[in-house]
Design goal:
Elements: H1 12-15, H2 21-28, H3 37-45, E1 52-53, E2 59-60, H4 63-79, H5 83-94, E3 125-126, H6 128-135, H7 139-147, E4 159-160, H8 162-174, H9 184-205, H10 210-239
Antiparallel strand pairs: 1-2, 3-4
Helix pairs in contact: 3-6, 3-8, 4-5, 9-10
């Protein structure tokens, strides 16, 4: 459960328990450390949340907005659902309807599983225009990022959901003077870590038993999480700092 700060003494938005987008980011990062302001803005542009606006145009989020954001991010992370499906699911919940969370990429009810065609969950995808809007960048910047391998389009020209997270982080690092070309070493390190994980789980993915392949997916997530934690710990140790 996401924790939101209670409204203390004060006036205006603070007295009403409303939060700035920066405060929301801090709350969400307890569970979703890679979420960015760009990602929150993108989800707003897709109609997943509707924060209030001050007369000067600043976003103000209520506890229900933060909770809804948590649901959206959780369904993307854990179930690989596209935003359209997530929006419909949340809207149905708000109407009080008893709905079952859809599971993409699996056989339909009543249909037997086919070992040769069974696949894992289908990842959410976004279009190029959506990615540009979410990251608040232009075509030339995205082309540059792609040339360095920081973001890679899918065969159909779209992008996976993680592209939004990567784009947001590249933008934030740019505010500190770190240019995309400087991040090629980070990308190379990530590829090596991914290759190491893939070596471990590859035999499970190739197994004909669908339960074994499902286990491969869970093992991949577990190993990826450990690799990310180790990477962060090594960077902190090298810099002699400790992140919150």
């Amino acid at each position: 459960m996401l924790r939101t700060p209670s409204g203390g003494a004060g006036n205006g938005a603070a007295a009403c328990g409303l939060m700035s987008i920066g405060a929301v980011l801090n709350v969400l990062r307890e569970e979703f450390p890679e979420v960015t302001i760009s990602k929150i803005r993108f989800l707003e542009s897709e109609g997943l949340i509707e924060p209030q606006r001050t007369p000067s145009g600043y976003r103000k989020f209520g506890p229900e907005d933060v909770e809804r954001l948590g649901h959206v991010l959780r369904m993307q992370r854990d179930h690989y659902l596209p935003l359209k499906v997530i929006r419909e699911h949340l809207d149905a919940m708000e109407r009080g309807e008893a709905v079952q969370l859809p599971s993409l990429g699996r056989q339909r009810d009543g249909e037997p599983a086919d070992d040769d065609e069974s696949e894992g969950p289908t990842a959410a995808r976004i279009g190029r225009a959506e990615l540009l809007a979410a990251a608040e960048i232009g075509e030339e910047e995205l082309d540059e990022w792609e040339s360095y391998g920081l973001i890679t389009p899918l065969p159909d020209g779209g992008y996976d959901a993680e592209a939004v997270t990567v784009a947001g982080l590249v933008v934030e690092l740019g505010r500190f003077g770190i240019e995309p070309r400087h991040l090629r070493a980070v990308k190379a390190a990530a590829d090596r870590e991914a290759g190491l994980v893939d070596q471990v789980v590859a035999p499970l993915r190739l197994h004909r038993n669908p339960q074994t392949r499902a286990h491969a997916e869970a093992r991949t997530k577990e190993l990826a999480g450990l690799a990310v934690k180790l990477h962060a710990a090594l960077v902190q140790s090298a810099l002699g700092v400790r992140l919150p």
